[in-house]
Amino acid sequence: MIIEDVKKQLLDNPYAICNILEHFGFYHMKIYPNRISFANSEDGNKTGISLKLDESLVVKDFVRGHKGDIFSFLIKARGLTFREIFSYVKYELGIENINYAPKVEPFGGLFSKCKKKTTLEYKTYPDDVLDRYELGYSKKFFDDHISFTTQDRFNIRYDFNNCSIVIPIRSPTGEIIGSKLRRNYQVSDTESKYVYDIPCPASQTLYGYSQNYAELYGNDILVGEAEKFVMQCDSYGYNNAVALGSSSLSVTQCKLILGLNPASVTFMMDVGLDPETLLRNMKLLKSYSSMLPVDVYYWTGEGFDDKESPTDRGKEEFEKALLNRSEIDVLCEQINNSRDIR
């Protein structure tokens, strides 16, 4: 995980942390064996903010009540985006621009195939790759409870050549890695509503991760299937949501979620998802969270129709849906009962 790797480099270089804090307008940095203290302003309390020197790099601002890792803290304290902060951190650490396109390996990658692959592999693009699309709001998305403010925030565009709404897909650190088109017309039975104009491996990222990072870290995280779920949540005032881009959780996505130190995780998948797939998602997350116990829940889908997302009916119904969640044992019992019937 690139974010975890960068945190480890920061932990090995507390002076780089001090330089970063100074760059973003903090003062009076002092390094101790297990923490760094600093102030919000030149005349501020010199010990009012503390950064813990361990792998979490958690910051506590005792005056303003901010708490989170160094990235979420800076987002809240300075009103910056995750990408702006991460870019400067890479600069301070001397990390070159990262391109995750697959690399050529000796012997055709024979030895790497013999071990479990954990590295991220995707191509990144400059933001001007989106210039091929037009700026504008989507009435279809607005009618689907996605506000114009949210469409701005997630940089929704329009492709006139394909008569499609454009959803930019970003890496965990905020770079463009693909674009997904939502057809803006009634599709036939043989045509998909969603296609990729710039293909990317959705399993290597989480939609909404970089945009919502500050509100995700240390919070109750909501996990949905489609990008629309995250944008609808945002329109309702909930910025603690991410989407898988599919119905299955990957190992990479699992680690990204757990790297946010969540208080709990609730899978809010569309109604009708195979219970076995949902159970696999929950078990995978719990298997990787054994060292960091996390409460894992799932939305029951009560009162909703097949294929519906919990966000599809507006804010009021979504908030009711948040109350209808259960634990993994209930799902196991449900699956076992269905097997007995067969």
Tell me about this structure.
The chain has 342 residues and is α+β, with helices and mostly antiparallel strands. The protein folds into three domains: 2-93, DNA Primase, Chain A; 127-200; 204-341, 3-Layer(aba) Sandwich (Dna Topoisomerase Vi A Subunit, Chain: A, domain 2). The chain is built from 13 helices and 15 strands. It has helices spanning 2-11, 14-23, 70-78, 82-93, 110-113, 139-143, 148-153, 209-216, 227-235, 251-258, 275-288, 315-321, 328-341; strands at 27-31, 35-39, 49-52, 58-61, 67-69, 134-135, 157-159, 164-170, 176-183, 194-198, 220-224, 241-243, 264-267, 295-299, 325-327. The strands form three sheets. It has a five-stranded antiparallel beta sheet. A five-stranded antiparallel beta sheet has the order 6-7-8-9-10, with no helix packed on it. Strand 13 (264-267), helix 11 and strand 14 (295-299) form a beta-alpha-beta unit. Residues 99-118 have low confidence and may be disordered.
Please give a handful of descriptors for the protein shown.
342 residues, alpha+beta, DNA Primase, Chain A, Dna Topoisomerase Vi A Subunit, Chain: A, domain 2, 5-stranded antiparallel beta sheet, 13 helices, globular
Mean pLDDT: 90
3D shape: globular
- Architecture of the largest domain in CATH? 3-Layer(aba) Sandwich
Q: Provide the helix percentage.
A: 25-40%
Structural class: alpha+beta
Order of helices and strands: HHEEEEEHHHEHHEEEEHEHEHEHEHEH
What is the CATH C-level name of the largest domain?
A: Alpha Beta
Overall tally of structural domains:
3
Poorly predicted regions are 99-118
Counted by DSSP, the helix tally is: 13
Annotation, overall tally of beta strands: 15
The largest pleated sheet is described as: 5 strands, antiparallel
**N- to C-terminal separation?**
42 Å
CATH topology of the largest domain: Dna Topoisomerase Vi A Subunit, Chain: A, domain 2
